[in-house]
């Protein structure tokens, strides 16, 4: 039984796993996107999201705490200077995992893990979708639905009458 075993060990020793997650977190912060397996990405998300939350308060203590995890001066500087400014208004959910298929050699599920506020393509499509949306749709009650059904039934025979006439005119026009 595996009761209470939440952590995915990823087939590594504790030291190897900590070093791998530290390196992956540094790469994610520096490059904003990383291609890896789904299992590693899910483990990385649990590792890096608390660090991103801690970077919102730029104090010496939080910088030292994050450095203890990352062990990379450049990534700590980028995290507190560049990334923290972008994620300041976000209450959580700083990363996104996009599944890309399987790896050819061992059929492992592959994905891209990225920082949400840095994907310009998704940010631009989200902005246009929000601008084009005019109203929210809700399920209607039974009474309203029955009234809408009768009005569409009344409109449907009129459309059916027009379509055969239009189809007979088209071959004659040719």
Structure description:
The structure is a single chain. With 174 residues, the chain is mainly alpha-helical. The protein has six helices and three strands, in the order αβαααββαα. The chain has helices at 14-31, 38-54, 60-70, 73-86, 120-132, 142-173, and strands at 33-37, 95-102, 109-115. The protein has a three-stranded antiparallel β-sheet with strand order 1-3-2. Helix 1 packs across helix 2 (38-54), helix 1 (14-31) crosses helix 4 (73-86) and helix 3 (60-70) packs across helix 4. The mean pLDDT is 84.
- What structural category arises from helix and sheet content? mainly alpha
Kindly, what is the distance between the CA atoms of the first and last residues, rounded to a whole number of angstroms?
77 Å
Helix content: 55-70%
Q: Strand sequence of the main sheet, in spatial order?
A: 1-3-2
User: What is the assembly state of the chains in this entry?
Assistant: single chain
| Silhouette | globular
User: Which regions contain 5 or more consecutive residues with pLDDT less than 50?
Assistant: none
Rg to the nearest angstrom? 27 Å
- List the secondary-structure elements in sequence, H or E: HEHHHEEHH
What is the makeup of the main sheet? 3 strands, antiparallel
Question: What is the gist of this entry?
Answer:
The chain is mainly alpha-helical and 174 residues long. The chain contains six helices and three strands, in the order αβαααββαα.
């Amino acid at each position: 039984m595996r009761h209470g075993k939440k952590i995915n060990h990823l087939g590594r020793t504790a030291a190897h796993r900590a070093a791998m997650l530290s390196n992956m977190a540094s790469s994610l912060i520096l490059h904003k996107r990383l291609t890896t397996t789904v299992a590693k990405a899910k483990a990385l998300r649990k590792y890096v999201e608390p660090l991103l939350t801690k970077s919102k308060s730029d104090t010496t203590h939080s910088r030292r705490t994050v450095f203890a995890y990352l062990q990379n001066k450049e990534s700590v500087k980028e995290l507190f200077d560049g990334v923290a400014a972008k994620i300041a208004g976000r209450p959580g959910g700083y990363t996104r995992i996009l599944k890309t298929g399987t790896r050819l050699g061992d059929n492992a599920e592959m994905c891209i893990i990225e920082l949400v506020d840095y994907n310009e393509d998704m940010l631009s499509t989200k902005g246009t979708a929000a601008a084009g949306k005019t109203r929210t749709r809700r399920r209607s009650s039974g009474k309203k639905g029955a009234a809408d059904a009768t009005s569409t039934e009344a409109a449907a025979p009129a459309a059916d009458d027009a379509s055969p006439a239009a189809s007979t005119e088209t071959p004659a026009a040719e």
